[in-house]
Specification:
heterodimer; A: 815 residues; alpha+beta; Aldehyde Oxidoreductase, domain 4; six-stranded mixed beta sheet; 20 helices; globular; B: 157 residues; Ubiquitin-like (UB roll); DNA polymerase, domain 1; 2 domains; five-stranded mixed beta sheet; 5 strands
Chain lengths: 815, 157
């Protein structure tokens, strides 16, 4: 075991405990950013002026009529930006645009004494637009060749030789939808000005340091004049990684110009129409198998629907390319990626960050090709699993590859898969109007930020004279339980009871230069930093204790609030030792730091070992489809997921359950629709409320839902032997989609291949059933011949630059 | 403006409110009861659920003036001093929450539901809670918590 992963005796990590804020949540005492508004004196409210065009040039704006509205205090426009008019890190996201880039784009903001005054003021702002042609879906953008950003290519082996030697070559296309985050707490920032012009922004943000960077460069001031705090978020899911910055900057401008606190909280319609979503993708693919169904070659071109600006599209695309293999060994690979620019919201991070999109392409390929190969889809998947010693297409050895097989076998056994498959066959033979199917799919997901620089974290640990402990770290809490885990890590590393440790909210003036709480890496990175800080303090206290106990410092043990020598004997209470140390003038606080070791990544050739390790999981899902309507039920789900040695089992199982259901929502229910007509409303998001955008609810829960964590799963490379959990289980929901495909196919003759749209809504399933019944074709998969030839970039490849050049931005902001 | 008198979490308030003010905004902005939150604005998510005379209502879906002369209980008034209501305790213990934003509404709906049906089946819990959305948990632990609370007599309180 490594020093990082080794657990002491009686660790607090690994204990089954509730969420650290559970007591506050169940009594309504937990504070979110907007709850601070009523506690703040003299707050102004911000309301956007949203453009009613998908693409247009602003030809005139008159804000005077708004100022005539009672209660309107100020209208913010481009002229009010003291620094850089840019809400992002790519210089392509003007905070106040001259050119409207999507329907609902905010062109100005009105500040009012009440939200109602600001709303009426926004209606009074006069704006003239010169409408421009708009591209509102990815196929239109491909046809128009309107792309943005990098065009990465990932290659291994000899693609032509791979196809030449393949016994079967299939090709097809696949376009699938994005997903709205629908965190229950909408975007919110509350900004105020401290003495001497310093800005304090409370923001619902997953990335306080970047919110700070953007506020600083918009305000034209150095970062040390901006403090960002995030108490907690009412859900984030990636939607608050990049998107909060502009809203925080608007509030900061408003607060600076008026001298009063400014609250900017989006209502749900504004949040849905203004903030980015998961990228939908388009894929063209050719795949080769040998006679026994082993993958030989994959040639694919993935086009991400990026929306109007780059945002996080480049790293999302990179992760999609790095996950198209999912769990499968493919010797010869060529995958091209590109980002369409469309007149829609700027699509962004969403749990999985491109990984789900890449993997969905592969799982769709396998689901469609299995019948054509004459193989059971379950067998086809299992047969192609990575084995120990094999590497991903980008060159990283697949460590612990055997865990996929272990998870698979455990699900097969505990899920009684063989027995149930027989039952399903019997059911289908005796029920003419409905069909059942059971599908199993694996997940392999790389953990670490693709961009190596982000794999660092900081923490601050204070031990007060009375022995009580206060910790702060760079990660944010959005419900995932990061703060709970950090308390457990600190209590374990200091050898004190959990109740001795308290955690203070995430603030940029406590821990600087933090990475986003994203990429599932929150506990790995911040846990490493908290542990490091605690160990510095413990090492200092060892010296004090050793002189009292009369033993060598390395023989002092800290456990459960007592300090002893390794052999027992005299016991020093933790508080007493701390107090003695204070009087000896021993430093009782420490700043901790962690950097993930062993990572390297060359984005220009998409090669290296960007991930510390892989997380694994397997799900089996059984569905029943009604042949008349396409309506379906999710009868049972069995999951085995690898979280290493869990830091907090109750929380980790909760993450697996929640991620699975959210993934099932993306793949089966959640249907984003933009107006693609030529009417003036072209580009308008039609699904702009929970009444039209269907979220998973109680009624879509699996009827039986069994989740187990993989046992004996110690991970050497992470804090206390644990593994990340936030994103990977989302992709277990592929099992639901594949089960629906197989149930639909079961309405047709044996061995038929069917296409299934994504999301697989009941309507989409109905069309798949209809296709199976026609039985005239195998969906739209082509075997042999020319088929679909993935587009190859004709221009020079533009490598994916590190996503964040904010260091440069900060320099221009006057640091 | 309309004059209303409403008892909220045991305290009677008399206020002048705009006739169109929603109950949830009255609770949050006038009374500072920010434990009750706004989620979707369209009465789909139930995050704003409170009790009106002991029965659950979505407070974004009624006006403050409609509460005139009635008794409102929010999540902040559910516990008996430091003793949590059995439903609160069950949500705490079963990890029936993650980000916590839906939790007040879920608990207020669950307590109302259990009053009507103190010994529900799992299926009845799912149907009874259907009007409340959670984006984090996948609902599994929420169902467990409601069933656990029922077992602890949560329906009789």
């Amino acid at each position: 075991m490594s020093a990082l992963s080794d657990r002491p005796a009686n660790p607090v990590v690994g204990q089954t405990i509730p969420h650290e804020s559970a007591g506050l949540h169940v009594t309504g005492q937990a504070l979110y950013t907007d709850d601070l508004t009523v506690r703040t004196h003299g707050v102004l409210h911000a309301h956007p002026v949203q453009a009613p065009h998908a693409h247009a040039r602003i030809t005139r704006m008159d804000t005077e009529p708004a100022l005539a509205v009672e209660g309107v205090v100020r209208v913010l426009t481009k002229a009010d930006v003291p620094g850089v008019n840019d809400a992002g890190v790519k210089h392509d996201e003007p905070l106040f645009p001259d050119e409207v880039m999507f329907y609902g784009h905010a062109v100005a903001w009105v500040l009012g004494e009440t939200l109602e005054a600001a709303r009426l003021g926004a209606l009074a702002v006069e704006v003239d637009y010169d409408p421009l042609p708009a591209l509102v879906n990815v196929k239109e953008a491909i046809a128009a060749e309107r792309f943005q950003g990098a065009t990465p290519r990932m290659e291994r082996g000899d693609i032509d030789a791979g196809f030449a030697a393949a016994a079967h070559v299939f090709s097809g296309e696949f376009e699938f939808a994005g997903q709205e985050h629908f965190y229950l707490e909408t975007h919110c920032s509350l900004a105020m000005v401290d003495e001497s012009g310093q800005i304090f922004v409370q923001s619902s943000t997953q990335h306080p340091s970047e919110t700070q960077d953007i506020v600083a460069h918009v305000m034209g001031i150095p970062s040390h004049e901006v403090t960002v705090q995030c108490l907690r978020m009412g859900g984030g899911f990636g939607g608050k990684e990049m998107q909060p910055h502009g809203f925080a900057a608007i509030a900061a401008i408003g607060a600076t110009l008026t001298g009063r606190p400014v609250r900017l909280r989006l209502n749900r319609t504004q949040d849905l129409t203004m903030s980015g979503k998961r990228h939908g993708f388009h894929a063209q693919w050719r795949v080769g198998f040998n006679a026994s169904g082993r993958l030989q070659a994959l040639d694919a071109t993935l086009t991400a629907d990026g929306g109007w600006s780059l945002d996080l599209s480049e790293p999302v695309l990179a992760r999609a390319l790095c996950h198209i293999d999912n769990a499968y060994w493919v010797p010869n690979v060529r995958v091209n990626g590109r980002i369409a620019q469309t007149n829609k919201t700027s699509q962004t991070a969403f749990r999985g960050f491109g990984g789900p999109q890449g993997m969905l392409v592969m799982e769709d390929i396998l689901g469609r090709c299995a019948p054509l190969l004459g193989l059971d889809a379950m067998e086809l998947r299992r047969r192609n699993f990575y084995r120990e010693g094999q590497s991903t297409p980008y060159g990283q050895p697949v460590k612990d590859a055997d865990r996929m097989g272990t998870c698979w076998d455990q699900v097969t056994k505990t899920g009684e898969v063989e027995r149930r498959r027989n039952q399903i066959a019997t059911f289908n033979a005796s029920h003419p109007t409905s069909r059942r199917a059971l599908a199993m799919t694996p997940v392999k997901f790389g953990i670490s930020f693709n961009l190596t620089a982000f794999n660092q974290a900081g923490a601050l640990v204070h031990v007060y004279k009375d022995g009580s402990v206060l910790i702060t770290h760079g990660g944010t809490e959005m419900g995932q339980g990061l703060h709970t885990k950090m308390l457990q890590v600190a209590a374990t590393a200091l050898g004190v009871p959990l109740s001795t440790v308290r955690l203070a909210p995430t603030r940029t003036d406590k821990v600087p230069n933090t990475s986003a709480t994203a990429a599932s890496s929150g506990a790995d990175l911040n846990g490493g930093a908290v542990k490091n800080a605690c160990e510095q303090i413990v090492d200092r206290l060892r010296g004090v204790a050793s002189s009292i106990l009369g033993v060598h410092p390395s023989d002092v043990r800290f456990s459960d609030g007592t300090v002893t020598s390794v052999g027992g004997g005299q016991v020093i209470p933790w508080g007493d030792l701390v107090n003695k140390a204070y009087f000896q003038r021993i430093q009782l606080w420490a700043a901790g730091f962690y950097r993930t070791e062993g990572l390297h990544w060359d984005s220009s050739v998409m090669h290296g070992s960007p991930f510390k390790y892989f997380s694994y999981g397997v799900a089996a899902a059984e569905v029943e489809v009604d042949g008349f309507t396409g309506a379906y039920r999710l009868r049972r789900v069995d999951i085995v997921h690898d979280v290493g040695d869990s830091l907090s089992p109750l929380l980790d199982i909760g993450q697996v359950e929640g991620a699975f259901v959210q993934g099932a929502g993306w793949l089966t229910l959640e249907d984003l629709r933009w107006d693609e007509s030529d009417r003036p409303s072209r580009g308008r998001l039609a699904t702009q409320a929970a009444s039209t955008y269907k979220l998973p609810s109680f009624s879509e829960m699996p009827e039986v839902f069994n989740v187990a964590l993989l046992e004996r799963a110690h991970e050497e490379g992470a804090v206390y032997g644990s593994k990340a959990v936030g994103e990977p289980p989302l992709m277990l929901a592929f099992s639901v989609r594949e089960a629906l495909r197989q149930a639909a196919a079961a309405f047709g003759p044996a061995g038929i291949s069917v296409d299934l749209a994504s999301p697989a809504t009941p309507e989409a399933v109905y069309w798949a059933v209809a296709e199976a019944r026609r039985a005239s074709e195998h969906g739209h998969v082509t075997e042999g011949g020319t088929g679909v030839v993935p587009d190859q970039s004709t221009a020079d490849l533009r490598p994916a630059h590190p996503r964040s050049e904010q260091a440069t931005n900060a320099a221009t902001a006057g640091v | 403006m309309a004059k209303i008198s409403v008892k909220v979490d045991g305290v009677t308030y008399s206020d002048d409110v705009e006739a169109r003010m929603l109950l949830v905004h009255y609770l949050r902005e006038s009374l500072g009861k920010v434990g009750t939150v706004v989620g979707c604005d369209t009465s789909n998510c139930g995050a704003c659920t409170v009790h009106l005379d002991g029965r659950s209502v979505k407070s974004c879906n009624m006006l403050a003036v409609q509460a005139d002369g009635h008794e409102v209980t929010t999540i902040e008034g559910l516990a008996d001093g430091d003793t949590l209501h059995p439903v609160q305790q069950a949500f705490h213990d079963c990890h029936a929450l993650q980000c916590g934003y839906c939790t007040p509404g879920m608990i207020m709906q669950a307590t109302s539901f259990l009053k009507d049906n103190p010994t529900p089946t799992e299926h009845e819990v799912r149907v009874g809670m259907e009007g409340n959305l959670c984006r984090c948990t996948g609902y599994h632990n929420i169902v467990r918590a409601v069933l656990a609370a029922a077992g602890e007599g949560g329906g009789s309180q």
